[in-house]
Amino acid sequence: MKNVLKLASAAALTLSFAGTTALAKDHKDHKDIDAKFKKMDTNNDGKLSMDEFEEAKEEKYEAKFKKMDTNGDGFLTLEEKKAGWEEKKDKKKKM
Q: What is the domain range of residue 35?
């Protein structure tokens, strides 16, 4: 099961970077991608290992969780989760 998740994550990573690169239209977008990649590449070898990718993903989800946990108790209530989804939906509409 763990290997299946790793393979799926690797495939998603490959597709997301390929898709992101293809959709990047200006120099600023490329700089953003470069900066994000460099931040994820913690050993600075110019490649992302599965561990580096998973660590970045965990940090991203931890930050999202903390943002939704508005009372800071370490738990998400249904109301906090709904508010987080609404905020995400509103943000997408503005794009």
A: 2-94
Calpha distance 32→24 (Å, rounded): 10
71 with 84: CB under 8 angstroms?
no
pLDDT tens across 3-15, in order?
655 655 665 556 5
For residue 80, give the amino acid letter. E
Measured CA to CA, the distance from residue 34 to residue 16 in angstroms comes to 14
Total domain count for the chain?
Answer: 1
Rounded CA separation 1/5 (Å): 6
Q: Which of 6-10, 75-79, 88-92 has the lowest mean pLDDT?
A: 6-10
Reading the block at residue 31, the tokens are 């700089």
| pTM (2 d.p.) | 0.54
50 touches 3 (CB < 8 A): no
